[in-house]
Amino acid sequence: MTEVTHWCQISAEEVVSFQSALTPELARALGAADHADLAALTDTMSRPERLALHLRSAKLAESADAVAGHLLGAELAAMRPYWLGQQVIVIAQNSLYSEALSSQGVPVETLNPSDAARDGLMALRQKTR
Length: 129
Hints:
This protein is α+β, with helices and mostly antiparallel strands. It has helices spanning 23-29, 38-46, 51-60, 64-78, 80-83, 96-103, 113-128, and strands at residues 5-11, 14-21, 88-91, 108-111. It has one domain (5-128): 2-keto-3-deoxy-galactonokinase, C-terminal domain (Nucleotidyltransferase, domain 5). Helix content is 53%, strand content 18%. Strands 1-2 form a two-stranded antiparallel ribbon. Strands 3-4 form a two-stranded parallel ribbon. Helix 6 links the parallel strand 3 (88-91) and strand 4 (108-111). Helix 2 (38-46) packs parallel to helix 4 (64-78). The longest helix has 16 residues, at 113-128. It starts with a strand and ends with a helix.
């Protein structure tokens, strides 16, 4: 998992909104798993104000999957305008975000970061010609 998640809204081939979250860094610090418990994710998405309580329960239960689910649920709740009713492309090595968004009924396309960087540089080159 990377240390920061970036959320970008693109309209008419321009970035119109951008936010970053420290969820991956928090997940690493709290010993979260690379897989999210979907029940924990859904629980925190519906009540993000209870995140600290959910995390404590997950730590007491020694459930690294629940820790990941609760953290990811809070991020998805905060970033809802970026994915609800939107076309979503996840650029990541792992599929944690893709799985989480898919569990919410969001159609997700996943790209490898190296491929996305290469394709972006090639597109930029075409624009400058």
